Sequence to fold (212 residues):
Amino acid sequence: RSRIAGIGLAVPDEVDAMAATRNGSSTSLKALQVEIENHIKLPVFVQNDITAAAGGESMFGVAKPLNDYLFFYLGARLQSRLILNHQIYKGNSSASFDHGLMRLESELATHGHPSEIIWSSSPEWPDLGEAYSEWLNECSNRLKTSISALAQFVEFKTVVLSSYAPQKVTKALCADISGAFAEIEALPARITISPKAVGAASLPFSSRFMIQ
Fold:
């Protein structure tokens, strides 16, 4: 127990927003942190789940040697964080787009395909047909639009795409991004199993250096 630096909790945007809406602050999350600390007698670190995933990739993944990069997380939705000089910036508003796996699930249903496989963390998906191709194209276009918009104001040369979807998906999207931007390298994240959980586990070491 003496070797445990602390406990990390990754909190989804919805919970974060709920706490802020309730009283204009993150008091509810702070209260949760204090309650858990009092119960387990260990330091507890709470952070947004997408920010935590970016932090985990910075500490243990493909982004470890990078100072500046744009991080995307492809989960139920498509979300992003900007990392400058190893510090993670969330911004004043949540950059969240309806181009994630929930969109794919909807398109699969429209085409009459089952969608359970996309939520299973399976290393491979079966042939999902036209619905998958349409979604992949939409997701790629959304990524490229976001990159183009940010590149007008911030200089960065690397994009990192994290997801628990099969690596075939992230590699295809990264190849499309790299093909569209000659000056930008797009890399699939190295942490592919529970990126948010890995990020949460790293919080006792990284929280003091990260900015939301």
